[in-house]
Amino acid sequence: MTEENNRAGAASALAETSAEFGGALGIAVLGSIGAAVYRARIGANAPTGLDPAEPAATEETLGGAVDIAQALPHQTAEALGNVAFDAFIHEMRIAASVSVLVTAGGTPCSAPHAAPTTRPTNPAPGNADHEGTGGGQSNRRRRVRASRARSVRERSWRKA
Predict the structure, then answer these.
(1) What pLDDT sits at residue 88?
(2) For residue range 98-129, what is the model confidence (pLDDT) as tens digits?
């Protein structure tokens, strides 16, 4: 392998590692924000009639709140379920809003570093490969393929 190939491989590995790390960090941060919002919301709005240990279990997860609600009297269970689902929905809205804000804030920072997506429309002087279309080597390859196909057809006609 050449030095250029080694550098390309290292750059690719670094890009992939950065993407994985960024995804994991984003999930961790948004999950922590969501858990804090859920706990605060359900702790402040927990219905009366719960045992002393039950509020702590309902603050852990939505599944824990639903499990505890199944063992409670109907009215208390319904109130706890409503509070838990409202807290979960609120938590998801906050996490989604933070995600949107971070994405919107990061876009202007990363835009100047993005690679250009368009090719130049004016060919470089003396470059016959471009033919003014910005196609570069692909136009030349098409011409070569067409030329080879013509010569194959001509040879087959001569044999017939």
Answers:
(1) 94
(2) 999 998 988 888 777 776 666 656 655 555 54
Structure tokens belonging to residue 65: 């709140």
- Structure tokens, 159: 């044999």
The pairs formed by 43-46 with CB atoms below 8 angstroms and a separation of 24 or more are 45/83, 45/86, 45/87, 46/80, 46/83
Q: Please, are residues 62 and 84 in contact by the beta-carbon 8 Å criterion?
A: yes
Residue 64's nearest CA partner among 83, 45, 49 is 83
The one-letter amino acid at 135 = G
Percent of the chain with pLDDT over 70: 78
Residues in the chain: 160
Condensed to tens digits (0 to 9), the pLDDT of residues 26-74 reads 999 999 999 999 999 988 888 887 877 787 888 888 888 888 888 888 8
As a whole number of angstroms, the distance between CA 45 and CA 80 comes to 9
